[in-house]
Q: What sequence folds into this?
């Protein structure tokens, strides 16, 4: 058999080794996941040959054995749209994380930033300037990275606004900072279009905002799938046949509905649902809505 060439870095190899050890997957299963994520065509045998030296050198299996990802549920959240988030959403996430004893690594579904000031859409007459909004957003991001230092991040459409605006005038990526550079994210925040953890796919969910869009996406991906993006849809929906069961879930959002960035939603009949998701495994998840106490008596409320 022809020896395969590894197209990623050694760090990527370590990632797949840890993923294999944490989930007890075969090399064939890891090859499938890697091929879907990177567009490669590795076989199980090729994946074994490429990773076995790293598995031995890093002693990965012994390190992972102490804390497996699947031993504790995963906290998934997103769509805070900093600096227009609900002022107690971070506190809510911390409380949920503690109550459900979630795994150290969280998943953010994207649109952590709003980029209202630099959007192609008409700005509110109350909007701040671009630099003022940037500094407010930067402070919020530094806060959340301290609260949750280890995050798998799924890029959202609002996150990419500066890049799209640059492309519209002919600027290539060479002239534009990456999302991680722009917001000074720690190396422990892994920013990608999507992630797969314990047999569950996480992505922002552009194009999945229709009714039951999360479950439709799960069926198309042929695996349980978590999305964000659609602020008015939250919860978990299940599908099953004789062979397997899976779910599609929407993690809700964390916005301040009274902020000027969301004035356009004022006449919408269906309102945003604030909350987050607890993912236990590939067949079980739970949506946790933000309790009314976080709006009113317990923490108070103000509008930006």
A:
């Amino acid at each position: 058999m022809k020896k395969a060439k590894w197209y990623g870095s050694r760090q990527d190899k370590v990632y797949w080794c840890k993923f294999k050890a944490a989930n007890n997957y075969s090399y064939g299963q890891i090859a499938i996941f890697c091929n879907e994520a990177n567009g490669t065509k590795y076989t199980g045998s090729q994946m074994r040959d490429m990773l076995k030296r790293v598995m031995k050198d890093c002693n990965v299996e012994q390190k992972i054995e102490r804390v497996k990802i699947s031993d504790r549920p995963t906290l998934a959240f997103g769509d805070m749209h900093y600096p227009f988030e609900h002022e107690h959403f971070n506190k809510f996430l911390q409380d949920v994380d503690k109550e459900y004893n979630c795994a150290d690594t969280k998943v953010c579904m994207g649109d952590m930033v709003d980029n209202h000031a630099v959007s192609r859409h008409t700005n509110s007459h109350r909007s701040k300037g671009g630099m003022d909004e940037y500094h407010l957003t930067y402070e919020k991001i530094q806060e959340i990275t301290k609260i949750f230092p280890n995050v798998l991040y799924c890029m959202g459409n609002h996150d990419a606004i500066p890049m799209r605006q640059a492309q519209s005038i002919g600027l290539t990526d060479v002239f534009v900072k990456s999302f991680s550079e722009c917001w000074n994210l720690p190396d422990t925040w892994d920013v990608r279009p999507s992630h797969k953890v314990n047999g569950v796919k996480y992505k922002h969910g552009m194009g999945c905002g229709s009714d039951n869009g999360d479950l439709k996406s799960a069926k198309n991906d042929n695996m349980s799938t978590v999305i964000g993006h659609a602020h008015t849809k939250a919860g978990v929906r299940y599908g099953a046949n004789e062979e397997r069961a899976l779910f599609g879930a929407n993690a809700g959002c964390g916005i301040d509905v009274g902020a000027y960035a969301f004035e356009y939603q004022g006449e919408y009949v269906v309102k945003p649902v604030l909350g987050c998701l607890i993912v236990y495994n590939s067949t079980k998840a739970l949506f946790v809505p933000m309790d009314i106490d976080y709006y009113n008596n317990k923490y108070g409320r103000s509008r930006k």
